[in-house]
Design goal:
The strands form five sheets. Strands 19, 20, 21, 22, 23, 24, 25, 26, 27 and 28 form a ten-stranded mixed sheet that branches. The protein has a nine-stranded antiparallel sheet with strand order 4-3-2-1-6-7-8-9-5. Strands 13-12-11-10-15-16-17-18-14 form a nine-stranded antiparallel sheet. With 614 residues, the chain is α+β, with helices and mostly antiparallel strands. The termini are far apart. The chain is built from twelve helices and 38 strands.
Length: 614
């Protein structure tokens, strides 16, 4: 009896469940029966390019242009792209809940007003390039867990998530980009800062450095400028005050009232934005008015953040001297009493020593000199104007740099832009741009010398140790390559050493053959090695002695010599002469017709004097 009762109860439960399911299924309209987990709108957020909102008297129209959301109405302004993209993500996830058709509303004696859609709370239009949706937003459901909407002016009322209400803006400011500046500091090419009553400070990025160009020429501290730009780009708008500025003076934003002007640009033409900062917005004084010059929009930003931008020369300059951009230097002249060192870059880009002698310079050593001069550390600043007492009138040393060779005795155009008179010989051209640094003499017991650029009033203290390491000896800059022959251009080699004379010759690229006084076969391995060494023969060092007696180097009656005859109509020849051993275990040598004695490694000298015939 117990088992039979249980069986009948089970059958009854199944039938009851089936009845309920049929009733509920039949109570829903056809569209609702076919929509498991449907979305309210069939949109992909990344494809949406237009979105407008209207409520009460507000109308905001936004467009996505190249990945950036912009507001076009009621103002032209940047939108907060992060915020709008988040709102789109919410829109894409809105569910299509209960659907109430017009027939169902009529059967229940309900109208659109009962769903808050007679006069909707808000309307939206959004979509991609091919389709746009219209959405009317009404009131809440009786349980407050859904909001009623209409899509594309359909008669049907749809319930969806109340998350929709959280993203409907109440003002255009809700969608505006709160950043005062768009972009990133990395793209800034230059900036200019003008404090009320202060000079204009202009800083330009040159390669990897920031250089101050106004009111003086100096290297800026990279970290300080980077920090300043970070602060500038981090400025957040606290209030959107006005879209049309009737009178700048009301906000303290007229040219003669602004407490700070900042101009930044991202191209070489200095086309950019100019920010002006004016009066405090209220008695509390924590906010300050700001605007872009040339527009009518007025904003309010934190005053303490603006105060951090009021940087002057002393706040931004680097503690190293700066002449000019290293790659622009084409001429250097150092004068110390009667001594002169002059270096000049040829049109080919190669450096030459032009005074007191003329020879090819080692580009690496010259570049090191430029970099060292451009990085002399400033140990202190002085305000004294008595150049005589500081040993600067006359100076002990004068260092000049320019981007071209100036006419001697003529002043140059300094890099800060002040042009001095150009002599008649240069009247038809452009005066070279450069700078001149004067330095005092090191004094016993003093750790510093004094220095001053001719185009500045500022005086500097420089370390004696750094200043005295700047070599004035022209030999220090001479290229170590003393001979550079093209092996294929050599047509004859003559070797002389004590009582031995050997010679070999060839026609074009033909084989080497011995010629008188040689009688034996050629030593091809020695000749090949010899030509390889002559392609780039480098000296260990140059002899600095001013004595002209070659006999003291063993070069008057040399240990040996090599003469190379080169192809060409003029029969060019080069002779390398090898003398006695030097004190540093090398061998003295010289190239006939070239100034200066140099030292070669002994092993190399011995290799060069090997027999070229057997």
């Amino acid at each position: 009896m117990h088992g039979r009762t249980t069986f009948f109860l089970l059958i009854l439960s199944v039938l009851l469940g089936a009845f309920i399911a049929i009733v509920e299924w039949g109570g829903k309209d056809e569209g609702e029966q076919d929509r498991p987990n449907l979305r309210l709108l069939d949109i992909e957020p990344e494809n949406v390019i237009y979105w407008s909102f209207s409520r009460d008297t507000l109308f905001v129209a936004c467009a996505n242009e190249q990945g950036q959301w912009l507001i076009h109405k009621p103002v032209e302004a940047r939108a907060d792209s992060i915020k709008l993209n988040h709102m789109l993500a919410v829109m894409a996830k809105l569910p299509r809940g209960e659907i109430v058709t017009a027939a169902q509303r009529a059967s229940r004696s309900l109208s659109l007003d009962d769903y808050g859609l007679g006069k909707p709370l808000a309307r939206m239009v959004l979509g991609d390039a091919e389709h746009r949706y219209t959405l009317a937003v009404g009131g809440l459901s009786p349980m407050k867990d859904a909001v009623y909407v209409q899509v594309d002016n359909s008669d049907a009322v749809i319930a969806t998530s109340t998350n929709l209400l959280d993203i409907i803006p109440r003002a255009a400011a809700d969608l505006r980009d709160p950043r005062l500046l768009a972009g990133a500091p990395a793209y800034v090419k230059g900036l200019a800062i003008k404090r009320l009553g202060g000079p204009l400070v202009e800083i330009i990025r040159e390669g990897t450095e920031w250089i101050i160009h106004k009111p003086i020429t100096a290297r800026a501290d990279w970290f300080k400028v980077s920090s300043l730009l970070e602060q500038l780009f981090n400025l957040q708008i606290q209030q959107f005050v006005a879209e049309r500025m009737a009178d700048p003076a009301i906000y303290g934003l007229s040219d003669d009232e602004t407490i700070l002007q900042v101009n930044i640009w991202k191209d070489e033409e200095k086309n950019g934005l100019k920010l002006c900062f004016g009066n405090r917005t209220n008695a509390k004084g924590d906010l300050i008015y700001t605007a872009y010059r040339g527009t009518g929009s007025v904003f309010a930003v934190q005053k303490d953040q603006v105060d951090a931008l009021k940087a002057g020369i002393s706040d931004l300059r680097d503690s190293r001297l700066y002449f000019m951009a290293a790659d622009a230097v084409a001429w250097i002249r150092v004068e110390e009493g009667e001594k002169v060192l002059q270096l000049q870059k040829a049109a080919s880009g190669l450096w030459q020593v032009t005074e007191p002698a003329q020879w090819k310079a080692d580009a690496r050593i010259v570049e090191d000199l430029i970099n060292r001069l451009n990085a002399l550390r400033i140990e202190g600043f002085l305000s004294s104007t008595n150049l005589l007492d500081l040993g600067l009138e006359p100076p002990a040393r004068v260092i000049r740099m320019a981007d071209a060779v100036p006419v001697l005795g003529a002043a140059m155009q300094n890099v800060a832009g002040a042009t001095t008179p150009v002599p008649a010989s240069q009247a038809a051209g452009i005066a070279p741009t450069g700078r001149t640094l004067i330095m005092s003499r090191p004094l016993p017991g003093k750790e510093y010398i004094y220095a001053k650029f001719e185009d500045e009033d500022q005086l500097y203290q420089l370390s004696v140790a750094a200043a005295v390491t700047l070599a004035l000896d022209p030999i220090a800059y001479r290229d170590s390559v003393v001979l550079a022959l093209d092996p294929t251009a050599v047509t004859k080699i003559m070797l002389r050493k004590k009582d031995v004379a050997q010679a070999v010759i060839r026609e074009g690229t033909g084989p080497w053959v011995p010629v008188a006084p040689s009688v034996g076969p050629v030593n091809l391995a020695v000749i090949t090695t010899l030509l390889e060494k002559m392609a780039t023969l480098r000296a260990v060092r140059f002899e600095r002695s001013e004595r002209n007696d070659l006999g003291i180097y063993g070069l008057k009656d040399p240990r040996g010599s090599l003469t190379f005859i080169l192809s060409g109509q003029e029969g060019i020849q080069k002779t390398l002469v090898l003398g006695e051993a030097s004190e540093d275990l090398g061998v003295y040598a010289m190239v006939q017709g070239q100034e200066g004695v140099f030292i070669l490694p002994k092993a190399l000298a011995d290799q060069l004097l090997q027999d070229i015939t057997r």
